């Protein structure tokens, strides 16, 4: 750690011990797992991050040459390696530190051109791509050691400190005693990490390398192209952090690119924190309960249509003003107008109508009606016409800016239909032309200019026609241009946005790219599975492709369609993918229950509002006015920041405990901060100014008002909305009266509570007795002695968190809770009748750590696996009981979930907090903190007027 004007580091003996342990482990791995020279050197190079020159002498004097592939290489290393004296390290980039060793023995990361993916899919440098396939998996286990070491890498060559990246300006008011406490905390943490990394790790290392081998099964040709290509692609929308690559690393369990050497937002450590670029992945998970065959965006990108096996057609409101997307239409198409049943397999959303086709013998024409009445958007999606005798329809496409529809069926035909609204308002259709094929028509697509039509069938024949439409009611002029026999069934055809290429995929295990200037096959990209879908981005820079496996590949057009990276879909095979018209989203659906939509812009992630701690974050809390932020980490350090400006400025720091769970709460009136950590409870006064003539004025304004020590650990604290009472739980639930010298006003029960909360109107208090009994009290009386228990509900699993929803009607409350059973439940409580019922249960697939309910109706759930789920429950603010409401409203609240994922599987969400409404901004921000040490603000406000950040 470092403080104002001071930089501390591990002692020489500690450095020697750590260095020796790593070298010993490197030698062991070389013997047991035959690691390459470059991998062993990278392990040894980690010692340079600690800033000790004792590593290389040990290496030179070593009699064993097993870490190296040959004695010559060992001698060469001894002669050539020179280590600068400590501390002259430029930064905490591993690549810079490794540059001190001979470059001939391994590659060195360079600042080469970036591979720009559309939106936030990117900026992967070629060196980073290479890094994926080599030795970084070895270093993942040294994450904790690297973090400690990086604190000592903030000194420049000239001995000065770089203040340009400084985030936290340590307060000069921190006393010498506090510095000693910090140093003590750091020593304990260092010792814990040393013990951790001295343990045998053969199993974990084996798993890392088996994963690396599995990943290497991806196309070697595509990977080599992505490594050697140097020319950057054009950027379509805002560039996000390397979320796709980090997602892959998180899924495989490796610690890939924990600190990217090309990350321009990454800075040196000062104190406990550094500015950090976002690693958060934002997705919209639309639960359908069954397969979804295809999705289609509306032309303006505001709505997403979904064809699901068991629900028929569903429409989702995906406008930027919708923080959490809502299902606005969900209707199964049973008997259509001609009494034909229909399971939708194809959707085409044109400028006027939506065409639906599939099983049966018809194409349904839906007219979307979207209007605004008194500021409320009203929607209607009714079937207004049916095109009959079409056969089984597998492909549909509208001619741009017209009502001409191409229909591909299993009767070996491509039908050209004209859909019109007459003067009387009646919708009619006419089949203008029929193109006979030798087999099923499985794919078809108009060119973006509308002058050409590409048709593919099951025989593997791809045909391109000139297409000229003269006037209404007349057959178009079609002229065959070129036929391409591709050898096997064609499953999808797409035109590049500039019309220069036709992409085709199918059962021939390849992606065929056709040059539309010379009309020749430019290249074929071999795949190990069928190619069931292709999706070129509208910016033309990338092509999404998939089929037969859970991987969706992203091919870079400007790198000769080399595979830049891939997305893994859980629990099923993807069947279709489509880009948003502005490339801000990528929707993927298939043989799984959810439609997953990845956000590719970073507009919801505020720039400069993400920082990393040197250890896990345990608790975060805003002041009531939103100008201050309290953060507590695993080292027991509680830091209070002023966030009213663009920077995080440190106002106050204190150490409460080390390595314990922590709870921080700010009183609603802003006067107090309650901190519970381990067996220590601290109450801070937030407005102390000192006493004239006795003490000097305190610039920090914070003063310790009360300290309590307990024989049992404190687990939770909660202020009453009036700020008079404080609930504090250790081995018993006590209620402290803050207006009476923090005296104990009542002991509610003798069991430890994991969570407790007051309702917004101060009339109801909920607490968990023991681990699985939920007790609800009537606390309307001003005297705690008169508080009465209304309900006691027992559950089989432990409850870790609970929170109250916004209060609308007195006597009607909603309480959300969750824990070990991996399910979030909402109870409707009618206090006057003293009854309750469960109204919602949402499976979370992981232990629930924390719940927070926003006054607008959004409920966020923080899970053990590193995900935050946000669901829309604003309908509960109606003031009516759930039994009086329509089930459709309830379904909207649980069918669409916005998920934030960061370091999935290697991170646990420890704290969530909504930015208070009374702050200087009207925006809705969610603060997220986790065991990965990252704090971040995510914007859930109306984004319709915001421009996409670059």
Automatic annotation (TrEMBL):
Keywords: Repeat, WD repeat. InterPro entries: Apc4-like_WD40_dom, Tex1/THOC3, WD40/YVTN_repeat-like_dom_sf, WD40_repeat_dom_sf, WD40_rpt. Residues 578-652 form the Anaphase-promoting complex subunit 4-like WD40 domain. It comes from the Eukaryota. It holds the Pfam family WD40. Belongs to the THOC3 family. This is Anaphase-promoting complex subunit 4-like WD40 domain-containing protein.
């Amino acid at each position: 750690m470092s403080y104002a004007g001071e930089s501390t580091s591990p002692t020489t003996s500690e450095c020697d011990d750590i260095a020796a342990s790593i070298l010993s482990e490197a030698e062991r791995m070389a013997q047991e797992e035959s690691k390459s020279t470059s991998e062993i050197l990278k392990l040894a190079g980690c010692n340079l991050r600690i800033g000790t020159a004792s590593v290389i002498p040990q290496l030179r004097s070593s009699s064993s040459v097993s870490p190296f592939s040959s004695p010559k290489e060992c001698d060469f290393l001894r002669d050539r390696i020179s280590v600068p004296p400590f501390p002259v390290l430029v930064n905490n980039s591993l690549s810079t530190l490794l540059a001190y060793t001979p470059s001939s023995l391994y590659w060195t990361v360079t600042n080469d051109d970036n591979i720009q993916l559309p939106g936030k899919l990117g900026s992967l440098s070629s060196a980073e791509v290479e890094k994926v396939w080599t030795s970084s998996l070895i270093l993942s286990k040294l994450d904790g050691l690297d973090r400690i070491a990086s604190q000592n890498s903030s000194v420049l060559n000239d001995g000065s400190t770089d203040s340009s990246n400084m985030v936290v300006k340590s307060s000069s008011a921190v006393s010498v005693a506090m510095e000693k406490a910090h140093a003590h905390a750091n020593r304990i943490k260092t010792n814990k990490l040393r013990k951790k990394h001295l343990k045998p790790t053969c199993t974990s290392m084996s798993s890392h390398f088996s994963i690396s081998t599995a990943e290497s099964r991806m196309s070697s040709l595509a990977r080599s192209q992505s490594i050697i290509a140097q020319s950057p692609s054009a950027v379509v929308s805002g560039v996000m952090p390397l979320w796709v690559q980090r997602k892959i690393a998180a899924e495989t369990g490796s610690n890939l690119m924990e600190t990217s050497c090309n990350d321009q937002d990454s800075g040196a450590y000062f104190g406990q924190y550094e500015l950090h670029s976002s690693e958060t992945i934002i997705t919209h998970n639309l639960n359908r309960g069954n397969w979804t065959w295809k999705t289609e965006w509306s032309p303006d990108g505001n709505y997403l249509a979904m064809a699901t096996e068991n629900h028929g057609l569903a429409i989702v409101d995906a406008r930027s003003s919708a923080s959490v997307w809502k299902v606005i239409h969900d209707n199964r198409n049973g008997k259509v107008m001609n009494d034909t049943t229909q399971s939708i397999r194809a959707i085409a959303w044109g400028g006027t109508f939506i065409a639906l086709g599939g099983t049966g013998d018809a194409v349904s024409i839906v007219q979307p009606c979207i209007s605004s009445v008194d500021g409320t958007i009203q929607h209607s999606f009714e079937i207004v016409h049916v095109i009959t005798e079409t056969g089984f329809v597998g492909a549909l496409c509208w001619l741009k800016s017209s009502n001409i529809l191409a229909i591909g069926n299993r009767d070996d035909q491509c039908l050209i239909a004209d859909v019109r609204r007459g003067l009387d308002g009646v919708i009619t259709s006419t089949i203008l032309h029929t193109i006979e094929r030798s087999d099923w028509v499985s794919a078809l697509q108009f060119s973006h200019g509308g002058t050409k039509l590409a048709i593919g069938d099951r025989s593997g024949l791809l045909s391109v026609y000139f297409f000229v439409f003269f006037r209404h009611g007349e057959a178009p002029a079609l002229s065959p241009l070129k036929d391409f026999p591709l050898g096997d069934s064609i499953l999808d055809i797409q035109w590049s946005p500039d019309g220069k290429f036709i992409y085709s995929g199918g059962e021939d295990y390849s992606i065929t790219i056709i040059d539309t200037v010379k009309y020749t096959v430019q290249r074929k990209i071999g795949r190990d599975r069928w190619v069931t879908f292709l999706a070129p981005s509208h910016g033309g820079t990338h092509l999404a492709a998939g089929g037969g496996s859970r991987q969706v590949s992203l091919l870079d057009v400007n790198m000769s369609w080399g595979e830049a990276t891939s997305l893994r879909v859980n629990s099923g095979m993807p069947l279709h993918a489509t880009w948003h018209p502005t490339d801000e989203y990528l929707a993927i659906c298939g043989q799984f229950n959810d439609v997953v939509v990845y956000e590719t812009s970073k507009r919801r992630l505020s720039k400069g509002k993400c920082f990393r701690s040197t250890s896990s974050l345990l608790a975060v809390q805003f002041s009531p006015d939103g100008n201050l932020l309290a953060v507590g980490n695993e080292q027991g350090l509680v830091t209070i920041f002023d966030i009213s400006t663009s920077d995080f400025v440190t106002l106050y720091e204190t150490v409460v405990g080390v390595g314990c769970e922590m709870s921080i709460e700010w009183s609603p009136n802003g006067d107090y901060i309650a901190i519970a950590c381990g067996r220590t409870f601290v109450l801070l006064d937030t407005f102390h100014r000192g006493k004239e003539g006795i003490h000097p004025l305190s610039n920090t304004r914070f003063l310790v008002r009360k300290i309590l020590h307990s024989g049992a650990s404190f687990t939770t604290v909660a202020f009453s909305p009036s700020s008079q009472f404080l609930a504090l739980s250790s081995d018993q639930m006590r209620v402290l009266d803050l207006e009476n010298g923090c005296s104990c006003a009542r002991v509610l029960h003798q069991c430890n509570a994991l969570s407790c909360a007051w309702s917004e109107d101060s009339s109801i208090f909920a607490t968990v007795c023991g681990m699985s009994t939920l007790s609800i009290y009537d606390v309307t009386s001003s005297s705690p002695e008169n508080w009465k228990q209304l309900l006691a509900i027992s559950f089989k699993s432990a409850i870790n968190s609970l929170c109250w929803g916004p209060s609308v009607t007195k006597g009607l409350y909603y309480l959300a809770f969750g824990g070990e059973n991996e399910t979030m439940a909402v109870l409707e409580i009618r206090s006057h009748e003293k009854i309750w019922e469960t109204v919602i249960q949402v499976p979370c697939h992981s232990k629930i750590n924390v719940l927070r309910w926003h006054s607008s109706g959004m409920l966020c759930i923080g899970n053990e696996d590193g995900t935050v789920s946000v669901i829309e429950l604003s309908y509960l603010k109606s003031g009516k009981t759930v039994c009086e409401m329509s089930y459709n409203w309830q379904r909207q609240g649980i069918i669409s979930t916005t998920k934030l994922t960061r370091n999935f599987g290697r991170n646990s969400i420890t704290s969530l907090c909504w930015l208070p409404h009374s702050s200087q901004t009207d925006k809705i921000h969610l603060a997220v903190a986790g065991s990965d040490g990252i704090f971040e603000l995510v914007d859930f406000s109306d984004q319709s007027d915001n421009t996409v950040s670059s």
